[in-house]
Design goal:
- The chain is of the alpha+beta class.
- The protein contains 2 helices and 15 strands.
- It has a 6-stranded antiparallel β-sheet with strand order 11-12-3-2-1-13, with no helix packed on it. Strands 4-14-15 form a 3-stranded mixed β-sheet, with no helix packed on it.
- The chain is globular.
Length: 215
């Protein structure tokens, strides 16, 4: 009986070690070790942006699919914290808005090893992360939300329209797990559901910087 209990204790210890190992942020830390906090802040201030198919809209270091030097924005698998030993969950976007203008700006909370970077679109319609100081037109970082038609007006989905281009944020179709996010002509009738996005609160065990995740 003692040997049986010892065997069970070993199995539990191995399982616990695997879980802890799965929460190591080795990929994140290899790209960016900056951490401006001893404890992760309240996660509901930095929600995920998700697409209509529940994939995650992420920029640099907001997903293990995207490295620090990649300035693009993508639709990637929506990994929940602690459910995978290979992929982690991370903090998302900080939203700021001007009450008078009605436009929002979205800062990438995880991109701590660069200047504060925002979701922007350039004159060519390319969506990428850029610092406000590098913009020739601040409207490139401004986005306004519009409600979808009633048949799609559920689960807080919204269109996000660029102030500078007048086009809608869009996930472009593709067969890979990492699809490009850009802008295209708005289909306010809902003909293109991949122009609809929602913000979701973080899962538990989401990293806010190298080595630190919330509970």
């Amino acid at each position: 009986m003692e040997n049986y209990h010892l065997f069970l204790a070993i199995i539990v210890a191995v399982a616990q070690a695997a879980i802890v190992g799965g929460m190591k942020s080795s990929l994140l830390c290899s790209h960016c070790r900056a951490c401006d906090t001893d404890k992760c802040p309240t996660s509901d201030a930095y929600p995920h942006m998700t697409a209509f198919d529940d994939t995650l809209i992420a920029g640099a270091l907001q997903s293990d699919y995207i490295t620090s030097d990649d300035r693009g924005v993508y639709s990637v698998p929506n990994i929940k914290g602690g459910e995978s030993t290979k992929y982690n969950s991370y903090f998302g976007w900080e939203s700021t808005s001007g009450s008078a203008s009605g436009y929002h700006r979205f800062r990438n909370y995880m991109d701590k090893c660069s200047d504060k970077t925002y979701l922007t679109v350039d004159k060519h319609g390319v969506v990428k992360l850029r610092a406000l100081k590098n913009l020739s037109n601040l409207a490139d970082a401004d986005w306004k939300s519009f409600n979808p038609p009633k048949k799609l007006n559920h689960q807080e989905f919204r269109f996000w329209v660029s102030h500078s281009t007048g086009k809608c944020l869009t996930v472009f179709e593709g067969k890979t797990e990492k699809r490009t996010v850009g802008v295209s002509d708005c289909k306010f009738d809902g003909a293109n559901p991949f122009q609809l996005f929602a913000f979701r609160f973080h899962y538990h065990k989401a990293f806010c910087c190298c080595g630190k995740f919330n509970e």
